Amino acid sequence: AFAQAAKPVVASAATPTTAAQNVVIDRALLNAFKALPARFEDPKNPITPEKVELGRMLYFDTRLSKNQDVSCNSCHDLNKFGVDGKPFSTGHKKQLGGRNSPTVYNSGGHLLQFWDGRAANLEEQAKGPILNPVEMAMPSAERVVETVKSIPGYVTAFQKAFPGEADPVTYDNLAKAIGAFERQLVTPSRFDKFLAGDDKALSEAEKTGLKKFLDQGCQTCHNGAAIGGSLQKLGLVVPFQSKDQGRFDLTKKEADRMIFRVPTLRNVAKTAPYFHDGSVKDLQTAVKLMAQHQFGKQISDDDAKSIVTFLDSLTGELPKSYIAKPKLPASGPKTPKPDP
Ligand code: HEM
Ligand code: HEM
């Protein structure tokens, strides 16, 4: 039981007349968090502008899907904070997947990828959806490579992104390029300025919410640069009903039952619906459910609202010009036509 009993030191934002004008946050507690880096580096996949530009094109290219009508951006819309806003996404032939699509923004800060943590990093993750029969449904990695090789502009772009390689157009390199692009998808917010020491970067109401968040102990799981990212049990105190048993479904180990990857809380105000099953439409309800299932506590609507006010301050700036859909290289004579 790592939850601290909630002991509001200041009045809630709902009673401004008595609210302290200077909410003081114990800065030692902020060590749980980290400011966002400029990008999430991984020495195994050094970021170069050429790789990022290639990854950006691939991210938007529907020709990586069987019917040439789905791209990464279909389910992780970069203009919509990296999500599609639906409980479950529609992929190949409008089939529904079984989990909510998480945001790609700041996902480089997660220790593992996917709700059950089945991919170690973004490069490994990127190989999944293209071959997933309900997402992009390509029949094999070889077919993806063939398609990419049939597009002359891509062959050149792979050569530039992976200089010195005899055969640069590979499925591994495609995933590396997409991974490098995603590693740049960070959205700094006022909270980062606050972490850096600027007490004025958050309003009094936001600080009140942050204090409640810390008093509850939410940062035991929602921490680090992504404010999330590790594997934890959903329903730690009060079981959460779900057909999806998280990591257990993957490993069949009893200890993994209901273990899910903690999602980032950055931009969470913009990424409804919530939870792995997309079952909750509004953030205030999600916050109340967290207190209930993780701590066995009923928190008041006012406290939940106040925490939501803090969570709003985690909404960051999207790198607008950089995430606009790039011009994609033209198909060649051998580029496959959509599969009916
Ligand atoms: C998960 C990127 C295509 C739906 C993820 C994650 C990333 C990602 C980084 C993990 C995020 C996290 O765990 O926090 C990509 C890329 C794609 C792509 C680079 C293109 C190559 C798609 C498409 C769909 C989709 C087309 C919808 C049809 C989902 C869903 C999950 C997910 C439902 C969660 C699945 C689970 O955890 O089991 N994606 N995605 N993605 N994506 Fe995508
Ligand atoms: C999910 C907030 C405490 C683990 C979430 C979500 C929110 C949230 C808003 C939904 C995010 C989304 O779907 O994108 C909070 C707040 C907390 C708190 C305000 C304190 C009151 C905790 C604690 C743990 C935890 C202490 C770990 C013991 C998780 C996990 C999920 C999650 C595993 C994903 C659930 C799923 O699979 O659907 N949290 N959280 N949270 N949180 Fe928390």
Q: What percentage of amino acids are in beta strands?
A: under 5%
The class by helix and strand makeup works out as mainly alpha
Largest sheet: 2 strands, antiparallel
Query: Could you say what the CATH topology of the largest domain is called?
Result: Cytochrome Bc1 Complex, Chain D, domain 2
Query: Based on the structure given, which CATH architecture of the largest domain is correct?
Result: Orthogonal Bundle
Low-confidence stretches: 1-13
Q: Write out the strand line-up for the largest beta sheet, numbering strands in chain order.
A: 1-2
Query: What value does the average pLDDT take?
Result: 94
End-to-end distance, in Å? 55 Å
Q: Overall 3D geometry? A: globular
Helix content: 25-40%
Number of domains: 2
CATH superfamily of the largest domain: Cytochrome c-like domain
Which CATH class of the largest domain?
A: Mainly Alpha
How is this structure best described in words?
This protein is an all-alpha fold and 340 residues long. The protein has 2 domains: 27-36 and 187-312, Cytochrome c-like domain (Cytochrome Bc1 Complex, Chain D, domain 2), CATH 1.10.760; 49-186, Cytochrome c-like domain (Cytochrome Bc1 Complex, Chain D, domain 2, Orthogonal Bundle). The protein is 33% helix and 2% strand. The protein has 12 helices and 2 strands. Helix 1 packs antiparallel against helix 5 and helix 8 crosses helix 11. The structure holds protoporphyrin IX containing FE (2 copies). One protoporphyrin IX containing FE binds next to helix 8 and helix 10.
